[in-house]
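ingest -> validate -> predict -> emit
validate: passed (alphabet ok, no gaps, 415 aa)
predict: started
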Amino acid sequence: MQLQFPQFSKKQRVTLKVVMTLLGISFISYALYFALMAFSFFGETFFMALAVISAVLAIVFCVMFLFLENNKRHFRALFIVFAAIVVLSAAIIIVCKSYQNSIPKVLAANGVDLTDYIPFHGAKVAKLDKPATLELEKDFPVMDGATALYPVYAAFAQAVYPELAKEEEPSVTRNRFIVCNNTKYAYDDLLRGAADIIFVASPSQRHIDDAKKAGKDLQFVPIGREALVFFVNKKNPVNSLTLQQLRDIYSGRVTSWKKVGGKRGKIKAFQRAEGSGSQTALEELMKGDKITAPLRERISAGKGAKAEAVADYRNYNNALGFTFRFFVEEMAGRDQIKILSIDGIAPTEENITSGRYPFTSEFYAVTASGSDINGNSGKKQSTEKVIKWILSDEGQELVEKSGYVPMQEHVKKPS
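emit:
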């Protein structure tokens, strides 16, 4: 078949070349966008290859259109091929998104039902076998804290605030004194005097800096032990990672499961929101290594608006996530995920108690000195009573019954 230029005028040929060039560039850009999107969903090379082949076909048909006779017939063929590729790729993208949405957000904070742990109401709230030796009748300290620690401080409140159960509207009264705004907002509430005690893990540098700016002195009283755990889809063959491998993954130096003993596939390493207790724990683990940018997703911001946020963990076959041990085992369920050992040591209660598991740390009852939002200086006297009771045998019994590890005698406070 002999190639020859169609009989167009010079102006027509120039116009045609410009149009086809723009069309080719647009299609290649679209194909690359599609390929990157599909690649980010699955970490596989199949869709990348499909996009490249599609781009090559587009270029071939552009050349055929410019240099072969019977342009109308070739134009129709070109249009049909373009349309088919666009429809096919759009369909695959829709399937990819549908697949993504079908993967459960195992640890989405807003998907955790805390009603089972509400004081005087929840069926899972830990209880003492007899009334507590401390029962406040008034001057109740306002409690706030991390979502993963709500079950334990809800148990404290139920034990020492029995008067709240006698109110005509106990749910309203209770919600004034026992709230759960997560770690970041709990610190904010403490610093502005809206909370008297917060229950959180080690503070981030941002929390310490915020306290200095507010002229507040934070007091950290360790009341229990918890562990940061890493987990994967239960089908992932990897059972253990080393500390260095975790640092390499979250710094971006290692991106393939094959390099850490797994199957070929890109590691989809999820993170938590900045300022959260578990994200702060990851930052401490990295010891100065720069953490790679977190995976992000678009979420509803109300009234039809969309905003970007750190993506919640989705249980892909190639996913890696982390949070505190209790949150995984008790609050979110773990039938579809597998907790990893670190350096061959599993995060069992025994290993957490002994300190053998490397990511073991204390969690704290935190108070702040200084004036509250009403201008009152100092802390409620009852606040000190509650903290002292939490450290008693009864308080530590509730720590254990709630699923955490009770305190040991020698602990290290945050600097």
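The CA atoms of residues 146 and 182 lie 4 Å apart.
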